[in-house]
Amino acid sequence: MPNQLIFELALPPPTYAREDFVVADGNREALAWIERWPHWPAPALAVSGPTGCGKTHLARIWAARAGAMVVEGADLEGKSVADLSDMAVVSPTIVVENADRAPERGLFHLYNLLRECGGHMLLTSALPPAHWSIALPDLASRLRAAPAVAVSPPDDELLGSIILKQLGDRQLHAGAGVVQYLVSHMERSAEAARRVVAALDRRGLVEQREIDRRLAADVLGELSRRSPTG
Question: Topology of domain 154-226, per CATH?
Fold first, then answer.
């Protein structure tokens, strides 16, 4: 069935370009810190917020700006000081995603290595470092000295703006009330907006339907049923 086939197609990878980042009150301060680099008052910047708030997009904007390596916090497990030193030599600017999952000594040594070479690291996590359970006092003191900024989940206005931008990027027109309907019924994240608009585009094309509230409801229902938690 055609309306089944549209969901078999893989989504293109998300884009993390600066021009694709929609600025709002909840992320404006974090973006200002990203754009302030390299004039940070400490070797590290911590960016925190719930899933889907845009932390990764901000981190990738900084990675592109600073030429930074991107690693997962858990991937620092088992790294020796020599391994970490090699990382710092290859890239004196490093993003550590989900940094609260990094081994404390590994994160501590990486911080020190980057500080010694005049480098910087950007840490992302759900909670700011002040709320982590850190057993290593020296690491705790260093992270307390680093600026920390929170990112809020998208509010109605921001989520609507993200949906409109996704539609505009695909040269799609949505009928009256579609954006408001989506904002009221979908997961509140930029990535969810991307998935929903891509699905609207595909289903509307295959079924030759206008993007109206009925199509929006059908797409949200289908995506919900196909979600592992749906």
Answer: Helicase, Ruva Protein; domain 3 (1.10.8)
